[in-house]
Design brief:
This protein has 15 helices and nine strands. By secondary structure, the protein is of the alpha/beta class. Helix 6 packs across helix 7 and helix 6 crosses helix 15. The longest helix has 27 residues. The protein binds fe (iii) ion.
Length: about 350
């Protein structure tokens, strides 16, 4: 190698080295792009207004990936550290808890969110500080056939497992997150032994093996196949507000009760979310999450699926929710409900609750 060649090699090396250092430095000084990637398990048309309102207020464009919770989780796992996800929204405490265990979320420091969202409706930060927040609430209530069942016989979750309701009870699969969360909450209230006893009674009382979703349970109650079933509040509201003759026929056959009103209150679950672990737009992600806890967004967010806001000062005008009337809600931490999933699943396995 002659002097000229050595010089050229050196020059190239210096240029390459400079490029290596220059890219990250200049990347740091470039402001974050005005966009964010939202992975959402929500699929309600009314959410559109929420997203466009955020973009109008902040100039941040939202790119949406919508899929059910399982598909989102699979996608996040396969994308790993390269995931473009900024914000992850999911429905149900069980799934949010699982997502936290799977390491999908990053730590959030927001006095605003801490102040707006009650402590029992968000996760405790894990050892790495990652966390998620509930953004709307739903209740799990009892629906019964007016010809077959007296409301006072089914006005607690516990009574559904008593011998007087033999052959009358229907639920969706016990392993569905809505049921796992209900059972997780019962474990928190009454302990594992009493909950296992309850689950055994439920299996003994079933009108048919668990199948279908919550709306299917309500329809089976109306048809008389089941005397009593459990359903999330928004499924019932959807039917109560429907103008379709077939839905009106269903509604005419059923009654509903708010369970456990003299004791622990109706079981409450959440839809919520957090900032993704490797969010490429972390500032925009946090801004969006904080926006979702603002007064106007809480209204949209909860109304979008006939749910209740998590921010207590926000009052919504929703005809469907008014039909359900006031009720006493459980105040168990949704994080504890999540944590009890594994114990809940073990109980189901032991008693043969499919
Ligand atoms: Fe649902």
């Amino acid at each position: 190698m002659n002097t000229q060649q050595t010089f050229r090699t050196l020059t190239i090396t210096v240029v390459l080295l400079a490029a290596c250092f220059a890219v990250p430095l200049s990347a740091q000084s470039v402001p974050e792009a005005k966009e964010l990637n939202l992975y959402s398990a929500r699929h309600y048309k009314t959410d559109e207004a929420l997203y466009s309102d955020f973009t109008k207020k902040t100039g941040i464009k939202i790119n949406r990936i919508e899929a059910d919770d399982n598909a989102l989780a699979e996608r996040l796992k396969s994308e790993g550290a390269n995931s473009p996800a900024d914000v992850i929204l999911m429905v149900d405490a069980a799934r949010l808890w699982r997502a936290q265990i799977d390491g999908f979320f990053k730590p959030i420091n927001s006095k605003y969110l801490d102040g707006r969202i009650p402590a029992n409706l968000r996760s405790k930060p894990d050892p790495e500080g990652s966390t998620w927040f509930g953004l709307s609430t739903r209740a799990r209530l009892v629906v019964y056939n007016k010809d077959k069942v007296k409301p006072q016989d089914v006005d607690t979750y516990e009574k559904l497992a008593e011998p007087m309701n033999k052959g009358k009870v229907c639920t969706r699969s016990g392993t569905h997150p809505y049921m796992l969360s209900l059972i997780g909450a019962m474990i928190e209230r009454r302990g594992e032994a009493a909950t296992e006893e309850w689950a055994r009674g439920m299996v003994a009382n079933m009108a048919r093996p668990p199948r279908g979703g919550d709306t299917d349970q309500i329809k089976a109650v109306a048809s008389g196949e089941c005397g009593v079933a459990l359903a999330n509040s928004y499924y019932l509201v959807r039917l109560l507000r429907s103008n379709k003759p077939e839905d009106k026929a269903v509604v005419s056959k059923i009654g509903f009760v708010w369970p456990n009103q003299k004791t622990s209150g109706a079981h409450i679950n959440i839809a919520g979310g957090g900032v993704a672990k490797n969010a490429p737009h972390p500032k925009a992600a946090l801004e969006f999450l904080e926006y979702l806890a603002s007064d106007s967004a809480q209204e949209y967010f909860a109304n979008g699926n006939n749910e209740w806001p998590v921010v207590k000062s926000v009052k919504i005008e929703n005809e469907g929710l008014k039909m359900l009337g006031p009720f006493k809600a459980e105040d168990i931490s949704v994080a504890a409900i999540g944590r009890n999933q594994i114990a809940a699943q073990r109980i189901l396995d032991r008693v043969g609750y499919k």
